[in-house]
Amino acid sequence: MIDQCPHCQNDLNLSEAQVAKIKNALAALPAGKLLKLSCPRCQQPIELRADGTLPTADPAPGNSAPTRPTPAASRRSSTEPPGKPDLGWLSSGKYETEEVIQDIPMALILMKEGPGRAVVAETFTNTGYQSIFPASAADAIGRMQFGSFAAVVLHSRFEGDSLASSTFHASMLKMSMVKRRYIFYTLIGPEFQTLYDLEALSSSANLVINDRDVNKFGLIFKKAYHDYEKLFDPLLEALAALGRR
């Protein structure tokens, strides 16, 4: 199992739950197919063979983990011309196609780097989510258009001095309910009262948390998400039965 992105060279920092899901997906992978993941840092696709190695890797016997390229090696390789294409599939008669892993939920976290964001990210990692940190509100809006996120966390000061000035929050308010109902939206900021449902409802969010309580994000999120499932799961099941999911 690889632990470093072959594109940006950053450690993947996968949780035990994420590693378990990937291993299960690899074990169920049809012959000749590839498993496709996304790097949480650079968002480039990472493809894995059924044995957990990269398609271009040639591991030594008994070692399924590809060798980490050093930064210097990466810089040298970027200036070299591309090698000849691998035509091994012609003789084997097998062509590897991509298999995209679908069961790892993603969380979009719009918070400035710091202790608070670290606590939030750790909570999602420990519960099997893949955390994504957009560089800006525009970046986040773009990711929402083309990605599927189970959870979104926005700090009210991420892009301005209040929630009212947030272009990302404005985009969430305009989102179609067909997509919005499947996203657990959390707002964090100094103006909120933690777990105040009426305040969350007035802001079109599922949960609000005051800055002073962010260090307890894991416990608060667990409680709020449990209540959310009790309230909305029957509705979502009914919509699915009616073909309106």
Main attributes?
245 residues; alpha/beta; 5-stranded parallel sheet; 3-stranded mixed sheet; 2 domains; elongated; 9 helices; 8 strands; Rossmann fold
CATH hierarchy class name of the largest domain: Alpha Beta
Q: What percent of the residues sit in helical stretches (DSSP H or I)?
A: 25-40%
CATH architecture of the largest domain: 3-Layer(aba) Sandwich
Order of helices and strands: HEEHHEEHEHEHHEHEH
In total, the number of strands is 8
CATH third-tier fold name of the largest domain: Rossmann fold
Oligomeric grouping of the chains: single chain
Number of domains: 2
Q: Specify the number of helices.
A: 9
Mean pLDDT, nearest integer?
Answer: 80
Shape: elongated
Determine the structural class based on helices, strands and strand pairing.
alpha/beta
Largest sheet: 5 strands, parallel
**Ends apart, CA distance between termini:** 35 Å
Strand order of the largest sheet: 5-4-6-7-8
Q: Please state roughly what percent of the residues sit in beta strands, choosing from under 5%, 5-15%, 15-25%, 25-35%, 35-45% or over 45%.
A: 15-25%
Uncertain runs: 59-67
What is the fourth-level CATH superfamily of the largest domain?
A: Response regulator
Radius of gyration: 21 Å
